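Our consortium's second objective concerns turning raw sequence data into structural hypotheses that experimental partners can test. To show how far this objective has progressed, the report includes one record in full. It was chosen at random from the queue rather than selected for favorable results. The single chain below, 455 residues long, was entered without modification.
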Amino acid sequence: MTPLTPQPDPQAGAAVKAADRAHVFHSWSAQGLIDPLAVAGAEGAYFWDYDGNRYLDFTSGLVYTNIGYQHPKVVAAIQEQAGKLATFAPAFAVDVRSEAARLIAERTPGDLDKVFFTNGGAEAVENAIRMARLHTGRTKVLSAYRSYHGATSTAINLTGDPRRWASDTASSGVVHFWGPFAYRSPFYAADEAQECERALAHLEDTIAFEGPGTIAAIILETVPGTAGIMVPPPGYLAGVRELCDRHGIVFVLDEVMAGFGRTGAWFAADHFGVVPDLLTFAKGVNSGYVPLGGVAISGEIAATFDKRPYPGGLTYSGHPLACAAAVATIQAMEEEKVVEQAARLGEHVLGPGLRELAERHPSVGEVRGLGAFWALDLVRDRETREPLVPYNAAGEANAPMAAFAAACKKNGLWPFVNMNRTHAVPACNITEAEAKEGLAALDAALSVADEHTTG
């Protein structure tokens, strides 16, 4: 579908931006240093501003519009639900809520057949950890340094990246460890097999020194997202599962970003044949059309609360509009084979295309990913693997990545840029032609990154 681009209306755009600057407090930002783009509309894989500039969105919003913007079936479902029952309290059985839970449970791995609904991913993580602690009677939770789990109290402490620092109390019962990442191995591994073996040995040592009987849960992003899309080596997640089983630790997989088709499977866990005890989701469950997240719960953990009340809840848990959007999204993904499309994109278009770019551009150190979930690790020097910008760079130190991002936008591509990486994370149902358009824009922008290499 060719998205419509309305006629430019700079005056309307200026009014939108003025109201934003006067009243909207933006997340993760120094308010006086930002200049948000005023968006006039969006459709499919594109959005546009009031000046008539159209962008191919290689960010999927915040990696959540898995079926693109303004999917007609989902929009219609929300409209229909609003006319039927716009909202209702979570303590009641509501048809659309039950149907959303059923469709999700049908697709989650193993016996994760009960669903606790939240408003988003961070709340899903909060409740998953609460369930694990109550189920085990233990307090500590282990999570990886290269991770992001959300911005609420527990979730931000579980997070490994620098967004944690300002809110980390160091008293939340969280212990961080190193997960596998062969390209920048903390274990000096020679290959993926050795990285897997050493990462599991490190985790086993961490468990031993922390005291297995004190650890309620280990939480991992199945494929870490914002931290760099590092696909775990074969055997790693199965090894973590075995360690959890051996010590009575609850295994939580965070699929907020990787779930619902993003990796070319309904859930990333499907690629590895691993079933967690709890699985968190959000984002792609309804492409973010109405906020929704949740926890898929194993039979054993659900049984903990058969006679014992679960001490948690949310006013808008399983909101009918959000659940209607989820039902329509899952049905559309099934009918239109969106999961299969994401897998094909990864195997035949994005993966090969990005690797071809790496051959031509000395700034590309590594290409990694699955489905519609890819990262380019940008470097100054391929031999030393020195990142193009330092860890958590800002201001002048981040100038090379800022120049790269500006070049993308100049070429009509809205990029996902984090630290020294750019992620290729378009809608899972993007066409081959649209994907190639994005790759061409990346090709041009990487020439700007190349100017900052030493090779």
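The partners drew two points from this record. The longest helix spans residues 338-360. The mean pLDDT is 97. Both points have been shared with the crystallography group to help prioritize constructs.
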